[in-house]
Amino acid sequence: MPKKIMIADDDPGIVDAVEMLLQFEGYTVTTTVDGSTVLDMKDELPDLLLLDIWMSGEDGRDICRQLKATRATQNIPVIMVSASRDIAASALAAGADDFLAKPFEMDVLLQKIEKLTH
């Protein structure tokens, strides 16, 4: 059964590139450019969430806090992504399981996903 990864990022270029890479690696991928839809997840919960910190009108850290406070979603590993390297601490403080600064190496992303989904 392939692992399901959800990408929440409002940069279509990043979403496309990461989605293609993950599908190539055998993952099932869902994507959204709207952070609030992440909080509406009910069925088909992902095995991991790749969450951008800055999305239009949404702070990924707030989304992460809400996910981690909800029983249905609290155990989903979250890797927060941002172009701003100096907010890694606040991402982790919000409950993220890991942090990745943009631009990132795809190999590093894959290693983090492997670590958190096994």
TrEMBL record:
Domain of life: Bacteria
SMART domains: REC (SM00448)
Regions that span the bilayer: none
Keyword check for Phosphoprotein: yes
PROSITE patterns reported for this sequence: RESPONSE_REGULATORY (PS50110)
Annotated GO biological process: phosphorelay signal transduction system
Keywords carried by this UniProt record: Phosphoprotein
Record domain Response regulatory: where: 4-117
Cross-referenced Pfam families: Response_reg (PF00072)
Protein name according to UniProt: Response regulator transcription factor
Taxonomic path: Bacteria, Pseudomonadati, Bacteroidota, Sphingobacteriia, Sphingobacteriales
